[in-house]
């Protein structure tokens, strides 16, 4: 498989093939400057979100836009699940989990909301990561806390808050067995 580097340039996306030294620009553009790019783990779906929260869902195999979506606010964090079935989007203190859009056939509504949280943190969510089995999601925020939430409903499970960071959280990770959490501040 080719090694591709995706780079937002204003409201367009440049694709650099690192093995053949070929660069190309995707044949579409966002409404304004691109703020977030996220590629699914299987490399088939790309989501490009501009600074105003307007998104393009792109089929990377055919290099075509399969849907447009408005998140109605600035997106502060986004990530696909490792199994490619879901993706998580945070806008300020709110977050939503969507089912990944189908790229092999047309659907009337490509984005299906799976779950949403109103005020997960007291300040803007700045990052998200998934466990390797896609069962749990870890978010972190400007309020210096981390929250562990489950994707599917688990009886008697409530979101867990981890605090104690003294500086802004840069990133967080799960261990290989998903039993430990590491945060970098």
Task: Give the topology, please.
Blueprint: E1 4-9, E2 12-17, E3 22-25, E4 34-39, E5 45-50, E6 54-59, E7 64-70, E8 77-80, E9 86-91, E10 94-99, E11 112-117, E12 125-130, E13 136-141, E14 146-150, E15 160-162, E16 171-174, E17 181-184
Antiparallel strand pairs: 1-2, 2-3, 4-5, 5-6, 6-7, 8-9, 9-10, 10-11, 12-13, 13-14, 14-15, 16-17
End-to-end Cα distance, whole Å, is 35 Å
The SSE string, one letter per element, is EEEEEEEEEEEEEEEEE
Average predicted local confidence, pLDDT:
93
How many beta strands in the DSSP annotation?
17
Shape: globular
Residues in β-strands, percent? over 45%
CATH class division = Mainly Beta
Précis, in short:
This protein is mostly beta strands.
Describe this structure in words.
It is built from no helices and 17 strands. It has strands spanning 4-9, 12-17, 22-25, 34-39, 45-50, 54-59, 64-70, 77-80, 86-91, 94-99, 112-117, 125-130, 136-141, 146-150, 160-162, 171-174, 181-184. 0% of the residues lie in helices and 49% in strands. The model has no long low-confidence stretch (mean pLDDT 93). It starts with a strand and ends with a strand. By secondary structure, it is mainly beta. The protein has a single domain (4-184), classed as Methylamine Dehydrogenase, Chain H (7 Propeller).
